[in-house]
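User: Fold this; tokens only.

Assistant: Input:
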Amino acid sequence: MAKLMLLNQSAILVVWHSIEPYRIHAGKSVPIVKGGDQTKMEENEFFAIETFGSTGKGYVHDDMECSHYMLNFDADIDRCQGMLRLARSKQLLYTIKNNFGTLAFCRRWLDRLGETKYLMGLKDLCDKQIVEAYPPLCDVRGSYTAQWEHTIVLRPTCKEVISRGEDY
């Protein structure tokens, strides 16, 4: 039997960021708060609207062991190859670049590609900011945290939600 959970409190945080081809987190971030940054959204730009919900205090932070990563879009791969001392880091960078490019990936996918004993190399790539780590988002102990997002494009006469489908 399914258990119905009633939430007696919730907190929501909304973040908008621009998207470009093969660049999930492009240059613009638009805060949904009054005052501060005056960044403007412009016609024909694509944005992700990320919504975070929590049953806790609403202070979502990075915590726990990381499982998701992304090659830094601004990293000069040829220059980076020269600054890597660990052969394992160089091999892993080659695998990441050729299989994922600048799109997000998880360690499970590296496993499926036959990569083994890569954790030290992955840490080296993250320490050198060649690869960015995206740890799970957490709130206070015992609370539940969720994240979902839509992608929109700003047209001359409307805002079009392009991530909407039958299941979303």
